[in-house]
Amino acid sequence: MYEKCEEVLISRESLNERVAQLGEQITKDYEGKELIVIGVLRGSFIFLADLVRAIKMPLSLDFMIAKSYVGTETTGEVRILKDVDVKIAGKHVLIVEDIVDSGFTLSKLVGHFEGRNAASVKICTALNKPSRRVVKDLKVDYVGFDVPDAFVVGYGLDFNDMMRNFPEIRIYKP
Ligand code: 5GP
């Protein structure tokens, strides 16, 4: 299985450097605000763990699980399988995702939190695939790296629930 993902796209060092920059930017942008960081499981868990430690201000943290349905690429059916447990109204929500592809998942989640009267809702993603975007008006506020239209694994991202533990981002070639 490993021979299919020998090509490293983004090294651990580059990820570390970029996460530190994002943390600094987010710290500045949310100064004095009540911030809740929401990780979308499972792919975001490593990025989220790195990112929150690079944010130098008080914050609270929660998780959700969203699933986009196979075979529904054109309709973009996304279901929330686990919602957050905390109160959202009046808080500044930062959704943390592993990768934005079509944009269906995040567009659903942004709408979900706006509907619960969050003070603001922004998106931070480790990776972004702009060439694959279907939801053209989705605003992705913080991006680690833009990546080409390839299937990537590692740093939390899986192939069939495997390979999340690579410390770097690799390209999976079937
Ligand atoms: P979207 O709703 O933006 O199309 O899908 C986002 C989700 O698709 C991500 O959270 C991720 O689970 C999955 N995904 C999209 N592209 C990739 C990829 O290149 N590698 C992996 N491992 N997952 C991907």
Topology summary:
Elements: E1 7-10, H1 12-29, E2 35-41, H2 45-54, E3 60-68, E4 78-82, E5 92-100, H3 104-114, E6 120-128, E7 142-146, E8 152-153, E9 169-171
Parallel strand pairs: 2-3, 2-5, 5-6, 6-7
Antiparallel strand pairs: 1-9, 3-4, 8-9
Helix pairs in contact: 1-2
Structure described in brief:
This protein has 174 residues and is α/β, with parallel strands linked by helices. The chain has three helices and nine strands.
- Estimate the strand proportion: 25-35%
**Distance from first to last alpha carbon:** 9 Å
Would you state the CATH class? Answer: Alpha Beta
Uncertain runs are none
Q: Give the tally of structural domains.
A: 1
Number of discrete helical segments: 3
- How confident overall, as mean pLDDT? 94
* Global shape: globular
Which small molecules are bound? guanosine-5'-monophosphate
Largest sheet: 6 strands, mixed
- Write the element-wise H/E pattern from the N-terminal end onward: EHEHEEEHEEEE
Query: Which oligomeric state applies?
Result: single chain
Tell me the structural class: alpha/beta
Helix content: 10-25%
- Name of the CATH architecture: 3-Layer(aba) Sandwich
What strand line-up does the widest sheet have?
Answer: 4-3-2-5-6-7
The gyration radius over C-alpha positions equals 16 Å
Number of strands: 9
